[in-house]
Design goal:
Elements (H helix, E strand, L loop, with lengths): L7 E4 L6 E2 L1 H14 L7 H6 L5 H8 L8 H15 L5 E2 L3 H10 L3 E6 L3 H11 L7 E4 L10 H10 L6 E5 L2 H10 L3 E4 L6 H5 L5 E3 L2 H15 L1
Helix pairs in contact: 1-4, 3-4
Amino acid sequence: MTSESTRLLIFDWDGTLMDSQARIVACLRAAIRETGLPARDEAALRNIIGLGLREALMSLYPEADQADWDARVHHYRRHFLELDDTPSRLFEGAKSLIRRLHGQGHFLAIATGKGRQGLDRVLAETGLAPYFHATRCADESFSKPHPAMLLEILDMTGMAPDQALMIGDTEYDLQMARNAGVPSLGVTYGVHDRQRLQACQPLDCVDSVAEVGQWLESWLSRAA
């Protein structure tokens, strides 16, 4: 059962709840090196965080042989899931924010460019799995900024677009939200800067997890 005050809060993962940029960049570099592609600088690698893995690599190397994408994806996932030990931690306050929102009775979801195996792993490691009602990954849907992940989450939870909010750190998150007719909140402590996020017309942009919580408290009280 839901009430009129119940909201569906959809979070991106990397750069929004977890500080995993360094690990993603390290694994991208390793996969690029092992598959013989020319190196890309850190800014270029950071820029594609948030896209599905295949789409990210295709964006970096539009001229590359299309037949080799499966090998490139395999090399990245092997490093991310097995070989790389670059630390990835939840941003300070993220776990308590998720617990609090869940305790208030809201639906919580994740829409991420991660693969299913990677997301399930970090949800188990962080202990956050029980708090999310729905999760969608780029390897089981269309990559951001396509709206499919959000539309599927709306369908799974029975919520309408105006009952939902997408929270993310990249233009891909906010463009996905616009494409799905869902309002959004940008966070500036992740990959893309405030100016880039504001170009996607979110309701607002905030600078820390603590500010996410404060902003949501005000927004949820108005919605109620």
